[in-house]
Amino acid sequence: MTKVGIIANPAAGKDVRRVVAYTTFTSNIEKTNQLKGIILGIDSTGVTEILIMPDYDELGRRALSAIGAHIKAKVSISDMPTTYSGEDSTLAAELMGKTGVACLVTLGGDGTNRDVAKGRRDIPIVPVSSGTNNVFPAMVEPASAGIAAGLIARKLVDSKDVIKIHKRLVIIKNDVAVDMALIDAVVLDRRFIGSKAIWNLAEVKQVVGTRAEPHYLGMTRIGANLHPIGPDDDHGIYVKLGRGKLRVRASVLPGLFSDVRVEEWKVLELSEEIEVTHKPSVIALDGERGVIVQTTDRVKIRLQRDGPPVVDIEKTLKEAVKKGYFTN
Q1: Rounded-to-integer distance, Cα 204 and Cα 241, Å
Q2: Counting CB atoms within 10 angstroms of each CB, which of 75, 108, 130, 269 has the fewest?
Q3: Are 50 and 43 in contact (CB under 8 A)?
Q4: Would strands 125-129 and 103-108 be described as parallel, antiparallel, or unpaired?
């Protein structure tokens, strides 16, 4: 029996950045349509069982009500307690792993994938973006993502050729690892969390990133315009904003361009740590405020290559073509 899990976040793509920047909300109708394609793609590969995380808007049930008659695999909504927060994605990944799920398809943003990785970091992830301001998940045709997940779960392609272990940032507070990020950890001049999404550059003091790519939005765009770093590079980047003479023009939100002053920046090696020097503060993880730092706290951010295994959808489909999977 081969199982694939689907974790879809109905709240992704709806934060305040859609109000303060020039972009759109992602409706749950569109997410339901994406889910239909993902499910049908998985089913086409001969996977025997598909598990879907429950959510407050019942995305999975809506999708199944439209396409259920066309599916050969056993499809069910996981029986689990829900809090209608990011904790659901973490718990779903953990429970699905225990049932023997061989691949996870995530539908959401950077934060959704971070929550999933907090639950399990040993199951291959096929990340599908449901928003406009994401780095970790890809904008991809949903059925293609489902096919890739099914191919991986059934071991119809060689995983070592199409799966890469992602980097992550570990937040170490008073000698204890308390949280993590997949893309960036941003130190903000704040004393409380408040609204989770970040958009005000005036608050940003330090940025640590696993990636820094000029074609993506977000806080790592600042570092990307200094020294691009991709997901496969065994490096990260650190930028300290301040009163430096160096100015960097970057678009950290859709359609909004800012000149920021950089006091210091450098390329990070794996296992290297950055000390949080601005205190008190709040650390935003993958775009969402999450860790409070008091004046007396000792906090470091460490770059590591032990994040979740990520499936390259394009490579997976090409490998399947080479093996003749789509022909007689």
Answers
A1: 7
A2: 269
A3: yes
A4: parallel
Per-residue pLDDT tens over the stretch 225-245: 999 999 999 999 999 999 888
Alpha-carbon separation of residue 311 from 4, 137, 149, 216, 275 (angstroms): 13, 10, 8, 19, 32
Using the predicted structure, report yes or no on whether residue 22 has a pLDDT greater than 60.
no
Domains and CATH numbers, the chain: 3-166+308-322 (3.40.50.10330), 168-304 (2.60.200)
| pLDDT tens, position by position, 280-320 | 999 999 989 999 999 999 999 999 999 999 999 999 999 99
Torsion from C-alpha of 111, 116, 119, 121, nearest 10 degrees = -110
Go through 85-101 and write b for each residue having 16 or more CB atoms within 10 A of its CB, e for each that does not. Answer: ebebbbbbbebbbeeeb
Is the model more confident about 26 or about 5?
5
Do 287 and 198 contact (CB within 8 A), yes or no?
A: yes
What is the 3-state secondary structure of the chain? CCEEEEEECCCCCCCCHHHHCCCCCCCHHHHHHHHHHHHHHHHHCCCCEEEECCCCCCHHHHHHHHHHHHCCCEEEECCCCCCCCHHHHHHHHHHHHHCCCCEEEEEECHHHHHHHHHHCCCCCEEEEECCCCCCCCECCCHHHHHHHHHHHHCCCCCHHHHEEECCEEEEEECCEEEEEECCEEEEECCCCCCCCECCCHHHEEEEEECCECCCCCCCHHHHHCCCCECCCCCEEEEEEEEEEEEEEEEEEECCEEEEEEEEEEEEEECCCEEECCCCCEEEEECCEEEEEECCCCCEEEEEECCCCEEECHHHHHHHHHHCCCCCC
Q: What is the pTM of this model?
A: 0.93
Helix crossing, 28-44 with 142-153: angle to 10°? 40
User: Where does the pLDDT of residue 24 fall: very low under 50, low under 70, confident under 90, or very high at 90 and above?
Assistant: low
The pair phi, psi for residue 136, each rounded to 5°, is -70, -50
